[in-house]
Amino acid sequence: MDSKQRIAKALQVATDTKVFEMGRGVSSLAPEIFNRFFPGRKAKIIADIHTWPVLGEKVYGLFKDAGIPVEKFVIMEEEFHAEWDYIEMVDKELDGGFIAVSVGSGVINDLCKLCSHHHEQQYLTLPTAASVDGYSSFGASISYQNSKQTFSCPAPVAILADIDVIAAAPKEMTAAGYADLAAKVPAGAEWMVADLMGAAPIKPDAWHVLQDYLDDLLANPEGVATGDPDAVSDLFEGLTLSGIAMQAAQSSRPASCCDHLFSHILDMTHHRYKGKLQSHGFQVAIGTLTMCAVFDELFKLDLTKLDVDACVNAWPTLKEEQARALEIFKDFPAPTLGFDNITKKYNDPQTVREQLVVFRDSWPEIKAKLQAQVYSFEKMQGLFKAAGAPYDPSMIGVSRQALKDMFPIVQLMRHRMNVLDLAKRGGFYDRLVEGVFAPGGAWEI
Question: What percent of the chain has pLDDT above 70?
């Protein structure tokens, strides 16, 4: 199946996006697409100080030449994240009947996505880098009240991906996108775990739209590193298919699990390295490698010998888990986050028993399926080295001890069931985590 066929198939399951055009020079289609979906409306080009000269100014001119009423709003900060202050800014810019035309990377797109939802309208996006999968995703990831939150909101009605622009983006942005796409490998494995636990059934439309092609779309990291247009096209297609999978699921479950939570922690604690905020994709790279290492450790275990009775007898009460969460998060920017999420995903002893019996009785088959899905730490690290993405936490200014210390927060900070929850139920959590950081482990301390 070629790219056009994959895209056409994906659009059949998309709930929001009707047009996905990818190719050289497709940004010139913006006025035509705008008039198709928003006839007679006013456009507001939303860009930043970097993306305005790269593409925003051109699109602004195209709209003026086409006779479409158009204004611009350019965020002038040198660097910024998707934070609520910017949501308030963009909301004001869309007052008065303007339709957002997002011209930028993931942050600009998320701002336009949520603000368009606030105005009960759709929007058009023109990405400027293959840096994230959020262009086509359902939901926007925004920092709000000291917490990184995913707000439910529709994806853009149309995506125009001009490969001339995207392939010329800074190499580190493309490498970040490669890491974000690669995160779908362990995230998929964690969805399989959650499915087997009865917590999050796999939705076939959302799974197959990307996972069937993920290996192929990750196969040319060297081309990604050099900005080869064909490799970047494959990367951007994969990122877009990931977003459409989220549309089909009405959730970010197809695209992220623990791999992304390390990044959320760094965002929420305002982590900087050499004075700079680290990109979403670079942070996710380290989370992705870490979770591949966790699965490597999981595969060393023989869960057919799991003592289910002992695990159930040792299972804490909800009050005990809530108290543990409050202690872990007491100095975190969102001190009740763990409490809230463990309350949502806590299971009673009988449910825990049923979950563990599934893994004990079917472990050889489950292990084989998970191994077919998730890459080894060594393989993923090699891909990241070739793509130009970070392959050691020190490359984003995080020590290995600090990374290890994040695990209790990662396990509890989202109500999405994950492989660490399985490990807690099975009594092998410490063995998994210690194995990652032990002598000879992936992140040996």
Answer: 100
